[in-house]
Amino acid sequence: xxxxxxxxxxxxxxxxxxxxxxxxxxxxxxxxxxxxxxxxxxxxxxxxxxxxxxxxxxxxxxxxxxxxxxxxxxxxxxxxxxxxx
Length: 85
What we know:
4 helices; globular
């Protein structure tokens, strides 16, 4: 892994993934997603929180590319490895 996973890099990826929902979310849902990513950026919530919210929205508005990405589901859920990031 050449690029170190930093909070800043995660925020960038989360915002990029959020862009796939721009035509599907209403104003309130968009604002909730923006605020959740900001809360992660400032350290108020762990990474799993914005990922969980994104997964919720993608269940309602499926996208095969995102669904099959390693970023959204990198580990078996049973391991809970992202809970502390």
